[in-house]
Amino acid sequence: MKFTSRIKNAYNAFIGKGVYTDRNLQQLLDFLGIDAKNEKDLSEATYYACMRTLTESIGKLPLKLYRKNDKNGVVAARDHPLYNIVKDRPNKFMNGSIFWGTIEFNRNHNGNAYALIDGYGKNTQLWPLDDSKMQVWYDDALILGEIPDIYYLYSAGKKFYKFSSEEILHFKTSNTLDGVKGIPVRSQLKNTIQGNVKAQSLQNKLYENGFTAKAVVQYTGSLSDESVQTFLAGIEDYATGKLEKAGIKNLIPMPLGATLTPLNVKFTDNQFLELKQYSALQIASAFGIKPSQIGDYTKSSYASAEAQQLSFYVDTLLYILKQYEEEVTYKLLTPEEIESGLYFKFNVSVILRADLKTQIDSLSTAVSNFIYTPNEARAFLDLEAKEGGDKLLGNGAAIPVNLAGIQYQNETGGE
């Protein structure tokens, strides 16, 4: 039996009836100083660059609670107890940016992200849950409850907790076979990511060896296998820089009659950089990330940073944000509140904000055409409200369309 298998069995015996996971085993092996390769461990730069882009994009957008009023308008529902909880402090340990960023990271990396809804009203707290400890069951046989529902079984230590679908916020990737659980992006890109990891490992080894690849040693005479190994080991110590501490860096001593012929590896001949760049673009494409967002500006065709952000919002973020808004609205609000016009929505103006000159021109146009009041426009620029600035202003020459041309008619009927 392999030593890692014995550790695995010992770990299972140690936790009793707890749930075994590869993640926990890896932590135990790391603690014991055992080098056991974990296939879930990813050290691919492009993968985490894409994860960072999505995580920070979601984290920087405020999730606000709005209410539709009787005038067919929309106002922020600041008086509702969930307004500040969801936007600023989902739980006592996390602010809004960290919480929603954590949820987005788990959603992409694990395929599913879960958050427990703890409490009600002003006492509500949202707690992210570990995907590796969660099981999702559809109980159509009425084993777990009296009505068919999706139940979430969560293990914490030696305890199991059962939650109904109303108690868990569940966010999943866009790739799902049953509509209940999502498929991780890393599962779809397993071969591509593994190839990039191996390519990076090769590059690291070449750096460590001073870009000296394999070599052929020619020597005269006959040596036993043991002598050959000792002979080659000494040459390799010199070639790979293991004797740098002794002051020997660039010299390789060769005995009389021996010749060292390096087998050089040329990245250009193997199209190493081109293949690595193509793999990076494949990973970014799976996440919906634009090449320029991972540092590839070779084919950038956007007229401005604003146009680039708009494309990212429409092509990538819109679907993700809509899923978040629908799930949070349905799970956190009562049917009566939803019926009354309450709903959650991300404020995307944070990422679509233009330069100052464009903002001023747009707001000025909106104010002069009865769209914004001056104080509403000033609020966009983080300026205080002014007295008399709550009235709609505009061009007095504008008239309703049904009255167009009336100024040319003779009200008395005469000529």
Roughly what fraction of the amino acids lie in strands?
A: 5-15%
> What characterizes the major β-sheet?
3 strands, antiparallel
Number of domains: 4
Name the average pLDDT: 76
Contiguous runs where pLDDT drops below 50 for at least 5 residues? 13-20, 31-43
Structural class: alpha+beta
Figure out the total of helices. Answer: 14
Q: Rg, please? A: 32 Å
How many strand segments? 11
- What is the global morphology? extended
State the separation between the terminal residues, measured CA to CA: 111 Å
Strand numbers in spatial order across the main sheet = 2-1-11
Sequence of secondary-structure elements: HHHEEHHEEEEEEHHEHEHHHEHHH
Organism: Intestinibacter bartlettii CAG:1329
Protein name: Phage portal protein HK97 family
Pfam families: Phage_portal (PF04860)
SSE topology sketch:
Elements: H1 3-15, H2 22-32, H3 45-59, E1 63-68, E2 74-76, H4 82-87, H5 96-110, E3 112-118, E4 125-129, E5 134-139, E6 149-156, E7 159-164, E8 168-172, H6 185-188, H7 190-208, E9 215-218, H8 225-239, E10 259-262, H9 272-287, H10 305-332, H11 335-339, E11 342-346, H12 349-352, H13 356-368, H14 374-380
Antiparallel strand pairs: 1-2, 1-11, 3-4, 3-8, 5-6, 6-7, 9-10
